[in-house]
Amino acid sequence: MSLDSKIPSGPMALKWSKHKQDSKLINPKNKRKYTVIVVGSGLAGSSAAATLSELGYQVKCFCFQDSPRRAHSIAAQGGINAAKNYQNDGDSVHRLFYDTVKGGDFRARESNVHRLAEESVNIIDQCAAQGVPFAREYGGGLANRSFGGAQVSRTFYARGQTGQQLLLGAYSALNKEVARGGVEMHTRSEMLEVVVVDGHAKGIVTRDLTTGKIEAHAGDTVLLCTGGYGNVFYLSTNAMGCNVTATWRAHRKGAYFANPCYTQIHPTCIPVSGDYQSKLTLMSESLRNDGRIWVPKNNKDIGKAASQIPEADRDYFLERKYPSFGNLAPRDISSRAAKEACDAGLGVGPGGRGVYLDFAEAIGQFGQKTIAERYGNLFEMYEKITGESGYKQPMRIYPAVHYTMGGLWVDYNLMSSLPGLHVLGEANFSDHGANRLGASALMQGLADGYFVIPTTVAPYLVTQTPGSVTTEHPEFQKALEDARGRTNRLLNVKGKRSVDSFHRELGLLVWDKCGMARDKAGLSEALRRIPELREEFWSNVNVTGSGSTANPELEKAGRVADFMEFAELLCYDAMDRKESCGGHFRTEHQYPDGEAKRDDENYCYAAAWEYTGDLSKPKLNKEQLTFEEVHLSVRSYK
Amino acid sequence: MSLLNLQLKVWRQNQGQPGHFQDIKASQIPDHASFLEMMDIVNERLIKDGGDPVAFDHDCREGICGMCSMTINGIAHGPEKATTTCQLHMRKFRDGDTIWVEPFRARAFPVVKDLMVDRGAFDRIQQAGGFVTVRTGAAPDANSILIGKEVADAAMDAAACIGCGACVASCKNASAMLFVSAKAGQLNSLPQGQPEKDRRTLGMVRQMDKEGFGNCTNQYECEAACPKEISVRWITKLNRDYALASAKEAFVGVQERAEGGD
Lengths: 638, 262
Hints:
The complex is a heterodimer of chains A (638) and B (262). By secondary structure, chain A is of the alpha+beta class. Chain A has 18 helices and 19 strands. The two termini of chain A are 43 Å apart. The model of chain A has no long low-confidence stretch (mean pLDDT 95). Chain B folds into 2 domains: 3-113, Beta-grasp domain (Ubiquitin-like (UB roll), Roll), CATH 3.10.20.30; 119-251, Alpha-helical ferredoxin (Fumarate Reductase Iron-sulfur Protein, Chain B, domain 2), CATH 1.10.1060.10. Chain B is 34% helix and 14% strand. Chain B contains 8 helices and 7 strands. In chain B, a hairpin with a 2-residue loop joins strand 6 and strand 7 (116-117). In chain B, helix 6 (197-210) packs across helix 8. At the A-B interface, helix 3, helix 5, helix 6, helix 11 and helix 12 of A face helix 1, helix 2 and helix 3 of B.
């Protein structure tokens, strides 16, 4: 199959408006004949489900949590970007577009990014109208802050809980449509299969996580809004339930998986404290606006209390290496710099995997009250977890896996290579390239759901006869049997090792060999060990309980089984990409000063992997990326 | 880091059947572990010994999704103020402690399994009016709605509710007033929420009653248990909004939301 990205013709700034004008419309009377299946209820899923229902489509929305409001978008802290230029500091749609393409290290599709920047302003209007309590100035207007490497203040926020507030806004829109009868909501329902009929995605198979019932649902198109795959590393800032199952199952049915090796490491997380650790906690990188990052200059100071180390013996390494961006240098650059400091034996705290984030100067300048107003909830969170006060001593931070830029390949209409299957938000690959800038994830999830898919789903639907496929079709029966068979297989292994023990082992392996830094030898070893571990999983996992009740062990087992397959593709992609860009750092490809060395001549493409039936032989399809507006250049933050 | 030896008394129950407490030993628990990580360790050992692991709800483990829901030593989310179960750490317990672990109990929150309960009632209350009716694309420029900082900050205080249900679990009447008042109060205090204020208030309160939550008798256990420290002042506001809406309904009528399409 060829990769047609369906980018509209014409000048960059006019592509989206032209596309909207050219896109086919569906008569209101006919819209209600179409059923749209939405999997996932985070920012992308809730906003898409609500908006499509407003337009008149029949929507069925599914989430594995007990309420759509619990999707992991809720945990995003820092903010959402929009090119409103309310600060009069020179921001514009073009500048947000430019920053995002450059921040993505020239591995995103320009036209998608431009559309994202255009829609950013509408998102803020929409959310404010829903009653999202954004931070405001005394005059009543919206407040902004500079965030994650941006030189303009374009980030809108709601204390340190922006994701929560935006999700609750989308959830309220969803509730409005559930009440109106436009959306049928299925909570505690996990998608196990995509059903493909005559080459088109026409439904899904789900497991009711309360009763264990495995059911089929038919629709005219399927939207996957199921988030990222960060939990392949076991320890990440993702919620425990975040998984790759929906996108991986779709991949096995024909949807290409693009750029899985682009994984983002977030610089400001709380370090690991022990081997019982179940997840890592992120603190908003807005902390870097006022906190200064340092490690001791000398090994002899390791183990001393921070207050015992004089100013002259501290290395503020980000300020030293990147004078113009300092502590606000982009995520990948800041994370790697912290790793280098710890690799050099200068890390602080247990295990030496941590650097200081120090607020002493900011507290001196603005007072503790002001700092508490800005970041109070983050300081509290830090104290709860570590038992230490960030007001009295510097916090300790270390990078952790946070977001995944890779995802299912989609064209300009957000349709995957499997016709009828659309992919929104973090689950797709399109907008962030090799690295996502801060406050851009919320923007993308909501742009896709509120403003993009409502336009771009119609051109597909008009080609389909509504309701033409029902769950009586043999393909549905087959998918049901597959899902039941797989569930029974997991339950019948009856081995000796717990599901978690496999997940931990896989995660450590992938973090070690395909984490913040990658090389050929490490990837080769991972590619050798992952299939072995997978084999052991299927012969020695112990999944307790039965399939006919609530059974969290069984849920985890299904997800880990898919991570075991996906991890291999992640490493194949990292192996193929013999360059360093954004979140993908190959140690063989760096400048003498340790900066990432991109290879535009050979790797300026999105790698869209095709499932061939053999996990060790994925087929690579390339979408060449062209840059009309933003000229390819070395991303320098010095 | 020190290690704790604990005696757990954990509620075990299958859907629709009577439940009971099970004695489980939790030995050698690192005090830096979170409460849920302690439960992970316990489950891992139960699995190894051929037992049935304890089912509990959890997801983000950073105190924001509202999924975790355990009553620990009789207190929803345990002894630590303003803390969800997932953010409670074992350093708050002492070696040799006996810890009682129960689900969030309320008639309106039926047990699904062990410590998992069904909180679907909260979604249905929200569907009965917890929103502003604005179509996507129909919003005016965000700065055309000016809202004073104090008003916006107060709305944010209410909006911080994570919908966990600790307020219900801690109330002797299993009242949901703190939850409902926070959700209604956020929108009722903002200009965007004014056009639907009466309809929202009546709809949400009536759905709350229909779900089987009890009445508020001003004990304020809810505020004490709330991991986000939502103030009971929101209940006062809801009572005021409700009285006003009821009076308006009696004298001039309040149009209820049309069901099944408008």
